[in-house]
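chain below, 205 aa
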Amino acid sequence: MIKSTILSFALVLLTSIASGQEQEDTSKTKKIDLIHADSLEFNSASSNAQMLKGNVAFKYKETDMFCDSAFMFKDSNTIKAFDNVLIKNNEGVQITGDSLTYFGNNKLARITGNVVLIEKDKTLTAPIVEYNMDSKLAYYFGGGTLVDKSERSTLTSDIGYYYTDIKKFFFKDSVVYKHPDYVIYTDTMMHETESDITYFLGSTD
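prediction:
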């Protein structure tokens, strides 16, 4: 279902960000846990780094992260993960990519290389996606494409946000929505996945 509205995008976005920030503030001390690795070694080039190999698995609250190998840097509280990177949360969202950098102090995962986010019949692809483990917000700034199999639609935009907990997509700049029956060009758009309602915020062509 498609619906035009003059709903304030800024107000909705700020409200959602505030909600996510409240979640983040309550768990600043929570660290990611190493669940499994076939082998663990110390990097000879740095006493601060641990090298993990084989079926590596981490967990942060309700989010699981997997990869083939990783480096853990205790001093900076960061993780660099490589090959077959997979993030899964309890909202049914999966993100895959070639590599990942996890910034533990900010609870932020940056996934790069052939990034694919999947939830049910919706698939988002982008060169880089960042995912906040606390607010459960995934976003991209370098362009992305969303394909909805059920709607047989494709959407492209320069910037995109997906709040996985409240099931809302926000798209900004050079938004093109292609449906078998029509094509819409707009500056800003919001899509609610559960109600399947799309809001075009601003002028459309």
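The two ends are 18 Å apart (CA to CA). The helical segments are 9-25.
thats it, cya
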